[in-house]
Each structure stands twice: as structure tokens, then as C-alpha cells.
Amino acid sequence: MPLSQHPERAPEELWRQGPTYLASDRRLAKYVARPIREFLHIEAGGSLLLLAATIAALLWVNLPFDGWAEAYENFWHTPLSIEVSGFHLEEDLHHWVNDGLMAIFFFVVGLEIKYEIVHGDLRDPKTAAMPIVAAIGGMAVPAGLYFAIAGSGETASGWGIPMATDIAFAVGVLGVLGRRIPSTARLFLLTLAIVDDIGAIIVIAVFYTSDLSLVWLGIAIALLAVMAALRAVRVWSGVVHAVLAVTIWYAMLESGVHATLAGVAVGLLTPAIALLEPRVAKDYAVTALKDRDLDAEEVHRLRFLLEESVPVAERLQSRLHPVSSYVVLPIFALANAGVVLTGGVLGDAVTSTVALAIATGLVIGKPVGIALACFIAVKVGLGRLPAGTTWPQIFGLGSVAGIGFTVSLFIAELSFDSEMLTADAKVGILLASVVSAVIGVVLLLAVTRGAPDEDDVDGAEPAPVPGSGHGQDAPV
Q1: Into how many domains does the chain fold?
Q2: Contacts of range 203-210, beta carbons closer than 8 Å, 24 or more positions apart
Q3: Is residue 144 part of a domain?
Q4: pTM of this prediction?
Q5: 187 domain residue, yes or no
Q6: Dist. CA 9–CA 419, nearest whole Å
Q7: Whole-angstrom distance, CA of residue 91 vs CA of residue 99
Q8: Higher per-residue confidence, 151 vs 97
Q9: Which residues form the domain of 155?
Q10: At 418, phi and psi to the nearest 5?
Q11: Can you tell me the distance from the alpha carbon of 384 to that of 130, in angstroms, rounded to the nearest whole number?
Q12: 325 Cβ contact partners less than 8 Å away, ≥ 6 residues apart
């Protein structure tokens, strides 16, 4: 409805009448569609779906119904192939989830890392120093504890499992705690989690790659160079880059390097600086609206100028973060968290060396490593604690960082050839993540008891949270 047809009516009045279905007063829109939209804009919502998918997977294989556990295994091992002319690619559903869908998750992680390097906390060495040092401590100590308990042999390859921090669940826990936790402490934890992701990516690339094909790896690297060259000459066509990204993913898959790392590499190459200055779109809009009307060509041009006023990395992160949080991660949990816990399996797993080493690394190693690294950094002058944050809060944040879930499960799938060891590792991850979350919440609630919300103190808006999807209403 062009404004020129109703010049006497303000845009707000036209909006209240419901120009779209979601904005209307229809019952489905009012009581179903809008509440769902609001839920999806709440960062903790992704964590709730991830938790629900985990519970669903555990119930699927553990409820006392004949054939359910077998049906779970058969379903996720269903082969699915793609054939185009002479091209043929076949994997089972489990591998399509872990190698394919998870590439989207790691692509979003790559975008978040790029954003933080260009615009966020990782841009400022002084601000980034403390969470970087804390992340290193939070990776090194759990890995060391794992080695100390698991020793050598076939169990030793799981040392990377307790190094990870799950951004999605960390954000969910912070959402439960609300505004009593200082925004600087939240930024500290989530910047730490992003650095932790960088460490996990390096560990996967270097230590969990087998049967390396140098030819396919060379093709992947060459295609990444082509993508970088296209960016340098300002060829930013989404279709061209999407085709290149899929081809890079396939080359990585064939190379033996885990295919999801293609997502990280492409994310890091995505431009984080806008093509146009915002004033270009603003000036054009002012000129185009002088007659209080817009034709189709002007709308198309204005949409282009507005989009290119926002960095590609930020736009993609805003669009794909909900897909990652509400689709990819729940499906991943459903496909990987189905561990049999009945028939004495739980008792055997809990007493296994692998589960004990993982649990010790996540529950004890994470908070101790983070707190110790922070203490050393403060003493030697590398950094200082986030403003308004106490040492007990640092330890509580370290416990929250012990929720390893998503990336820990992912590394567990790569660590062992034995299905029994993999199952033991998953039990250790699940139990340790629950214990870490409970300890973190209880400790942070205890040390902030009686403290006013930040909003009550200064009325400030929450600071942007790394890993939460920059540029959207909503952490990762």
C-alpha cells in the first residue's frame, strides 16, 4: 500500500491494522505464530530444544519397548545417496548429520570468530587477553587430567573430548541466571567459549584427521584461494560463493580432513566489512521518497543498498544462527545422544576409565584450569578480571564452561574405533555436562545472592553477546 494513497495516515497506524499475517489479530497469529517467533528470538530457546532432543534420543533407546533401540540404530544408519550424471555420493543419515549439517554449525562458528576478530572483543588485545589465556588453561588442564587418568593405549585418543565448551548450553545457563551476572562476566565466558571453539577446530584438524589425501586437500586449499581472490576483486555473488563452498566441503570430505572444517574456513573468509557506507542507502532513500512513493525498481535498488550496508558475515550470521540453533544442533543431539543406559550399562560406563577421565576433565579440570590461568594472568600483568567480577564468579563461570556437550560429542565420534569406548565417552559427557551446569548455576546464584540486576543499577541495555547471533534480537 503506497503511502501516497493515504498521506494523512501515519505508518504506525497502518502497521497496527496488520499489514502481514503475523501482525494481524487473527487467533493463530496472536496465540501461536507470534509466541513461536518470540521464543525463537530468545537465545535460551535453542538450548531448550537441544536439551529436548537429547532427552528424546535417550528415551528412544532406553524406554522398555521392544525394538526401539534397534530402530534408533537402523534409522540413523539408513543410507542416503546423491547421484548426478556420473557423480555419486553415499553416506548414512548419521554421517550426513555429522559431516553435512554440522558444517553449517561450524560455518556459523567461523562467522562468529571472524566478527569477533574484526569488530568484537578479539580485536582488542588487552580485552581479549584474559579470555584467551583462560581458554588455554581451560583446555590444557582437562586434557592433562584425561591423560593422567586414561593413560596410554586405545583410550588415550579421547584427550580432546573434555577440552570443549558448548556455547549453546552456556548461553542457556546464562539466560537462567538472568541479569544478576555482570555483562562483562557474560562477555568473558562467551569470548572464552569462542576461543575454545578455535582450539577445538585446530585439535580436530591436526589430531583427528586420518587417511589424508594430499590431492583433494590441495583442491580444497586452491578453491579457498579462489574464494579469497573473488572477495579481493569484489565479486560477492551469493550463488557463486555458495557453489564454491559446497565444492570445498566435498573436497575436504574426500581429503580425509573432517568436512565440517570447510565451514569454518569459508566462515573466516566471509567479509566482515560492509560493501557500502550506510549513508549511501540513506541518501538514496531520501531522494526516492521525495514523491512519497516507491516503484518496483526503486524498491529493488533500495533493498540492495540496505543489504550491502551490512557486512555479509553479519547478515549470514543473523540468518543462519537460528538454523544452527533450532535445526542443526537438535538434530545432531538426536542422532548422537542415543546412548543405552539400561541393563547395567550406565554403571559399567560410569566406572570406565574413559568416562571417569572425561568427567574429571570437564567437572574439575575446566573450572580449575580457567581460574588458575586467570590467576597467573593477573599476577604477571597480562590482564585483569572483568569489571564487577569476583574470583568465586570466575570459578562459577568455569563450571559453566565445563558443559562440553555438542563439540565433546562430536570429538567423541572421531576419537575411538570401539563402539563401547564411544558409548562410555558419551555417558561421561552427558553426566559431566549436567553436573557442571548444576554446580555452575548453584555457585553463581550463591555468590550473587542479594545482588541487584544490572538493569536496576544503571538501566543499561545488555551488551552484545559473542556467539549469540550478532545483529539479531537474540550467542554459541
Answers
A1: 1
A2: 203/160, 203/163, 203/411, 204/160, 204/258, 204/260, 204/261, 204/410, 204/411, 204/414, 205/257, 205/258, 205/261, 207/160, 208/160, 208/258, 208/411, 208/414, 208/415, 209/256, 209/257, 209/258, 210/256
A3: yes
A4: 0.74
A5: yes
A6: 67
A7: 9
A8: 97
A9: 43-206+336-458
A10: -80, 125
A11: 7
A12: 43, 45, 46, 49, 50, 168, 469
Q: Which residues contact 89 (CB under 8 A, 6 or more apart)?
A: 81, 82, 83, 250
Which pLDDT score is estimated for 76?
93
Q: Average the pLDDT over each of 21-35, 288-302, 311-325 and give the range with the smallest value.
A: 21-35
C-alpha cell at 74: 537402523
Q: Which residues of 295-323 are buried (b: 16+ CB within 10 A; e: fewer)?
A: eeebeebbeebbebbbbbbbbbbbebbbe
Q: Domain for residue 263, yes or no?
A: no
Helix (H) or strand (E) holding 165, with range, is none
Instruction: Tell me the three cell numbers of residue 476.
Output: 554459541
Tell me if residue 147 falls in helix, strand or coil.
Answer: helix
CB-based contact 472:326 (threshold 8 Å) = no
Do the strands 79-84 and 87-92 form a parallel or antiparallel pair, or are they unpaired? antiparallel
Q: Are 395 and 177 in contact (CB under 8 A)?
A: no
Contact predicate 434/399, CB 8 Å: no
Q: Which residue has the higher pLDDT, 312 or 295?
A: 312
Is residue 243's pLDDT more than 80? yes
SS3 state at 473:
coil
pLDDT of residue 223: 95
Q: Which CATH number belongs to the domain containing residue 186 in this structure?
A: 1.20.1530.10
CA distance 61 to 70: 8
The answer to whether position 98 is within a domain reads yes
Q: What's the pLDDT tens digit per position in 416-449?
A: 888 889 989 999 999 999 999 999 999 998 887 7
